[in-house]
Design a protein that fits this description.
- With 878 residues, this protein is of the alpha+beta class.
- It folds into four domains: 9-306, Sandwich (Immunoglobulin-like); 315-447, Neutral Protease, domain 2, CATH 1.10.390.10; 455-546, Aminopeptidase N, middle-beta domain (Immunoglobulin-like), CATH 2.60.40.1840; 748-878, Peptidase M1, alanyl aminopeptidase, C-terminal domain (Zincin-like fold, Alpha Horseshoe), CATH 1.25.50.
- The chain is built from 27 helices and 33 strands.
- The chain has an eight-stranded mixed sheet with strand order 6-5-9-3-2-12-15-14, with no helix packed on it. Strands 17-18-19-21-20 form a five-stranded mixed sheet, with helices on one face.
- A hairpin with a 4-residue loop joins strand 20 and strand 21.
- Helix 3 (322-340) runs antiparallel to helix 4 (343-362), helix 9 (556-565) packs across helix 10 and helix 16 packs parallel to helix 18.
- The radius of gyration is 28 Å and the shape is globular.
- The structure holds (3S)-3,7-diaminoheptanoic acid and zinc ion.
- (3S)-3,7-diaminoheptanoic acid (B3K) binds next to strand 20 and helix 2.
Length: 878
């Protein structure tokens, strides 16, 4: 564990290394306690480096056995080695080769960075700075090298030996050992190195690229779980076809392997030719996985595969450029899922994720630009801002330039930068070059943190048929940035007529309005539309063309109208969601408020539910009111989670009561008698049915319906949804107790499924949640060392249980802080990620604020805190 030194890394300090490493030859002799790594590194001093430039290699907790330079062992006074650094002050010549021997104990590696053991399987995680836990190296993305890797291990315990690139040789050795050699011809940075060794099952397939090369595909999983990997394989092949068709990008090695492991800090990792996955994002069948799991698997398999070009062939110059690969690759996986599923539904889901994860980040103490300028711990910057907002920025480039020009820009990017470690400037330049446009103001999206706020007011001149929009933009201050510059915001709009069709109108300013998109570039901007035959309803930010918050003076009638008739489904959903959200905000503050709004909303939702012109998946989204956390975010300050919960419960009850009969009828109609298919249309019907189950259960006030669905469920989507309704609505009911017990019995030997059981109990609202979560921390299937278990129980409690976590007496905060401190000792990265659940503490009402602050201060005071956790806690408190 790296103890915090307070050192800050700055973008402006970037400087290339003095030495390049052309070839990296690694030999691993694997052993749980004494793995021997021999690294032979071919160095060359770069042309502009000083002749006497010392060589300083990164390490992290390393045990050095020996160093030789060009075959001669270095005497102890010729170098300086600490666990974290190897310095050789004088080097013989311009080119030399260094052999470094280190010894590792994978079994003792609980941080899950570098080489570690997961359920007896050796595996690695090197991004961002894990390679330095394997050997001393120039462990940064702009040092790219050709890797050859030899793995030696006992044949019995590790029959499978994998690394990056293509297999070149394998064979037996003495004493029951064997070896395999892998060679990766593509230059790559150390963070893309990977090794896997163990006794794994696999499924295989092959793929023929557009130009006729045959690629052997393999997915490796724990033995006995092979059948659950077929959906992932299917998703992989579809990803490969899609990238050829949509971006013209082919795969470039003879093999592509995916390995699923059960201990993994995040979702997955795009190591060249050897993606390593959290098994949660590989394993699925109808009995064990929900539709959401299937969709996540499809998206993440695609995401990691797409990194082969956006990330691996073109990598990042330094970690400040992380969004260059992540934002772009998220954009690519979003487009892939949109093509595989329903585009509008996918987009709405993206908007919901962005608002629930990225907006609070951007509006709180952890706000940072999509391309940060400084960091203390880079692992803390794998954020929703870098990923999701980073993707939105790429989407806006496409909106501004048009799809065709965007594609030409991408082509130029691949042509110009293949093999490079590139920057955001390089990326923007290709689009400027293909379009001839100046994107310097647009570039602020990368440089400036904070969610821009746009307000729109309109005046309609009936006599002249003219609509004038007065638009104003501002960006709120964020940490270290009090003054903000004016952004270039592409705002897609529509003028909707009484029949729901978009009205034709001419605009006064052709330079800032074309194809339904206003290019906002000034603090205040007015735009006039003429030739209108009637007063239109204003549809704003269609397709969520810009990641902004929006205020507009619109009548309730206009908003209700748009929520039924806007031709843009995303805007339609936004109109509805905005109404629901505003109503919840009002009633959370004034519970006794008398208005007929709830009734009107219930009526609209009732109509949407049975509107066959809408796909069921859309209806399911529309019928789901904003979550308690969504409402809290919209309120922004002095938050009282109990008031929000009461308001939401009341609204749901009103909707449920008003539509009781029709919802029950529809619920029954949607029952699926066909065999299970994981496709989007089937999933959409299940989603709608599950939303209706919740409403119907609310209306009935008894658990019977949900208990019935639980009992008769033929797939996990139905079963898990029924369990959630039971646990959240009727936590004390006998039906709930027995369903929970049944679930535990059925899936007791399947940790991934049991995670759903932990999750659902962690979200039972109110004060009682904490004692339940505490008890579950002692459950035999719970393990504080496994990131999936920790996230399911403890992470879910803090991030998705507003009333449980934010208990008025602060006990939720205290328990959570204790767990963070406990997890940190083993795994600082996971602990730091958990701690971000405190990020909105300043928005709470004063008494909860103080209780949360106390816990943050208590964590900060723990002696010897890791950089990971210290960085998050310090910034959260600042
Ligand atoms: N690139 C990895 C994330 C690595 C996280 C390191 N802390 C997975 C991905 O985004 O594809
Ligand atoms: Zn990624």
């Amino acid at each position: 564990m790296t103890i915090d030194t307070g050192k800050v890394y700055r973008l402006e300090d970037y400087r290339p290394t003095d030495y390049a490493i052309h070839a990296t030859n690694l030999v691993f002799r694997l052993d749980p306690a004494h793995t021997r790594v021999t690294a032979k590194l071919d160095f060359e001093r770069r042309e502009d480096a000083a002749l006497d430039a010392p060589l300083v290699l990164d390490g992290d907790g390393l045990k050095l056995l020996s160093v030789t330079v060009d075959g001669a062992q270095l005497s102890p006074d010729a170098f300086e080695a600490t666990p974290d650094r190897l310095t050789i002050p004088r080097l013989p010549r311009e080119r030399f080769s260094l052999v470094i021997e280190t010894e590792l104990a994978p079994e003792a590696n609980s941080a899950l960075m570098g080489l570690y053991l997961s359920n007896g399987v050796y595996c690695t995680q090197c991004e961002a700075e894990g390679f330095r836990r394997i050997t001393y190296f120039l462990d940064r993305p702009d040092v790219m090298s050709v890797y050859t890797v030899r793995i030696e291990a006992p044949k019995a315990s590790a029959p499978i030996l994998l690394s990056n690139g293509n297999p070149v040789e394998s064979g037996d050795m003495a004493d029951g050992w064997h070896y395999a050699v892998w060679h990766d011809p593509h230059l790559k940075p150390s963070y893309l190195f990977a090794l896997v060794a163990g006794d794994l099952g696999r499924i295989t397939d092959s793929f023929t690229t557009r130009s006729g090369s045959i690629v052997q595909l393999g997915i490796y999983v724990e033995k006995g779980k092979e059948a659950r990997a077929t959906y992932a394989m299917d998703a992989l092949k579809r990803s490969m076809v899609w990238d050829e068709e949509v971006f013209g990008l082919e795969y470039d090695l003879d093999v592509f392997n995916i390995v699923a492991v059960s201990d993994f800090n995040m979702g997955a990792m795009e190591n060249k030719g050897l993606n390593i996955f959290n098994d949660k994002y590989v394993l699925a069948d109808e009995e064990s996985a929900t539709d959401a799991d299937f969709a996540n698997i499809e998206a993440i398999i695609a995401h990691e595969y797409f990194h082969n070009w956006t990330g691996n062939r073109i990598t990042c110059r330094d970690w400040f450029q992380l969004c260059l690969k992540e934002g772009l690759t998220v954009f690519r996986d979003h487009e892939f899922s949109a093509d595989m599923r329903s585009r509008a539904v996918k987009r709405i889901a993206e908007v919901r994720t962005l608002k629930s994860l990225q907006f609070p980040e951007d509006q709180g103490p952890l706000a940072h630009p999509v391309r940060p300028r400084r960091y203390r711990e880079i692992n803390n910057f794998y954020t929703a801002t870098v990923y999701e907002k980073g993707s939105e920025v790429v989407r806006m480039i496409r909106t501004i330039l048009g799809a065709e020009t965007f594609r030409r820009g991408m082509d130029l990017y691949f042509e110009r930068h293949d093999g490079d470690a590139a920057t955001i400037e390089d990326f923007l330049k290709v689009f400027e070059d293909v379009s001839g446009r100046d994107l310097s103001q647009f570039a602020l999206w990368y440089h400036q943190a904070g969610t821009p706020h746009v307000s729109v007011s309109s005046t309609y001149d009936e006599a002249r048929g003219e609509l004038t929009l007065d638009i104003e933009q501002s960006v709120p201050p964020t940490p270290l940035e009090s003054r903000k510059r004016v952004m270039h915001i592409p705002l897609a709009i529509g003028l909707v007529g009484k029949d729901g069709r978009d009205l034709e109108a001419a605009s006064s300013e052709t330079s800032s309005f074309a194809d339904g998109v206003i290019q906002l570039k000034k603090r205040r901007q007015a735009i006039r539309f003429t030739g209108l035959s009637e007063r239109p309803a204003l549809s704003l930010n269609r397709g969520f063309s810009a990641p902004i918050t929006l205020a507009s003076e619109q009548t309730i009638d206009d908003r209700l109208f748009l929520s039924r008739h806007d031709s843009d489904l995303v805007a339609r959903w936004q109109a509805l969601n905005g109404l629901l959200s505003d109503h919840l905000i009002e009633t959370s503050k004034a519970p006794a408020l008398q208005s007929n709004m709830a009734g009107r909303l219930a009526e609209v939702l009732g109509a949407i539910a049975v509107d066959d012109a809408l796909e069921p998946a859309y209806r399911a989204l529309a019928l789901t009111p904003p979550s308690e956390a969504d409402v809290a975010r919209e309120i922004g300050s002095n938050i009282d989670p109990d008031g929000i919960r009461a308001a939401r419960d009341t609204l749901v009850d009103t909707i449920a009561a008003a539509n009781r009969e029709s919802f029950e009828v529809l619920y029954r109609e949607l029952e699926d008698s066909d065999s299970f298919l994981p496709d989007a249309a089937s999933a959409g019907r299940r989603a709608l049915r599950n939303v209706l189950l919740d409403y119907a259960s609310a209306a009935q006030g008894v658990p019977g319906l949900a208990a019935g669905q639980y009992r008769n469920a033929t797939n996990m989507t139905e079963r898990a949804a029924a369990l959630a309704v039971l646990a959240r609505r009727f936590p004390m009911a006998e039906e709930t107790v027995s369903a929970l017990a049944d679930f535990e019995r059925r899936y007791g030997d399947n940790p991934l499924v049991l995670d759903k059981w932990f999750q659902v109990q962690a979200t039972i609202p109110g004060d009682a949640a904490l004692s339940r979560v505490e008890a579950l921390t002692r459950h035999r299937a719970f393990s504080i060392g496994n990131p999936n278990r920790v996230r399911s129980l403890i992470g879910t409690f803090a991030s998705s249980n507003q009333t449980g976590f934010h208990r008025a007496d602060g006990a939720g905060y205290r328990y959570f802080a204790d767990r963070i401190i406990e997890v940190e000792k083993r795994n600082p990265q996971v602990a730091a990620r958990l701690a971000t659940a405190f990020r909105s503490w300043r928005s709470l009402e004063p008494s909860r604020q103080e209780l949360a602050r106390k816990e943050l201060v208590r964590i900060a005071a723990v002696p010897g805190l890791s950089t990971d956790l210290k960085d998050i806690v310090d910034r959260t408190l600042a």
